[in-house]
Structures are given as structure tokens and as C-alpha cells.
Amino acid sequence: MNAPRHFTALARLLHWLMALMIIAMLFIGAGMVASVSERHEWLLQLHKPLGIAILLLVMVRLVVRFTTRTPPLPADLPGWQALAAKASHVLLYALMLILPLLGWSMISAAGDPVMLSESLRLPSILPADAQTFALLRKAHGYLAYLLFLTVLVHLAAALFHGWVRRDEVLDSMLRGKS
Fold this sequence. Notes:
Elements: H1 9-34, H2 39-67, H3 79-109, E1 114-115, E2 121-122, H4 130-165, H5 169-174
Antiparallel strand pairs: 1-2
């Protein structure tokens, strides 16, 4: 059986949907950190449900990733680049899981409810504790910066494959079977 040349339609849909959501989250988070106005509360109310949606989608995405065949990396790709590609994907998936869980934990430690809507409230996953909140807030911020950096490297690598190497790596996520 030949290896696929493209990711499945569902894998591509999840990839691009989550890419948009994560980029939005990074900008919303930056806006929250930079703001002390009333806008901060509005951004926070957007940030929470979007984070939970990302958490749920990354779980679906992991199931899809482990139950479908993926295109192989080019055979002539240098070993260090293949290792970097695999490591960066593990890091991306880990951050997509960890950041929403950290955010949920942080809000729980603050003693605040995680409201997804006016009537849908998630249970607290940690008891209220100011020191834990401070630690989790700092970790959430640092890991968000790491996610931003990792997304930029991922984008640069994709463009390198599409524009410099001109191999099928970028195409495998852009298009279906041709």
C-alpha cells in the first residue's frame, strides 16, 4: 500500500480551523495583557470559550492524527530537519493541550468560574489559591510566547518547503488528492 501524498480532508480542516483559532487566541491574549480598560473583560469572555474549543478540537485532532495515515517527509530531507519537524509537531500538540488546561487551572485558582456562556459553567479543576494563580498565570504567559514562536517557525518551515525546496510538504496540507 502506497503512502498517502496528502492529509485527509478532516485533518486539513482541523489544521486550518485550529490555525485560525490559535492565531486569534494569541492576538486576543496580547490584547488582554496590554489592556487595563473595560475591553479587557470583553476579550477575556472571548478567550475562555475559544480556549476550551481549542482543547476539544486538539483532542479530536489527535485521534485523527493517530488513526489516519499521513504523508511521509521527503526522503532527501536532512536528518536534522526531519527531527526538527517531528519535534516541532510534538511541541505544537503539547502546547495546544497544555495552554487551555493551564488557563482553566489558572482561572480556577483565581476563584473565578470558567463561563462558556451565560448558562454554561465549567467546574473548577483547582481550589482557589493566590500563589497557584500567580504561578499558573506566569506559566500561561511564557508558554503562549513559546506557542507564538513555534507557530512562526512552523510557518517559516512550511514556506521553505513550498517556495525553496518545492517539495510536496506544503501541498500535502493545502490540497487533497489531485
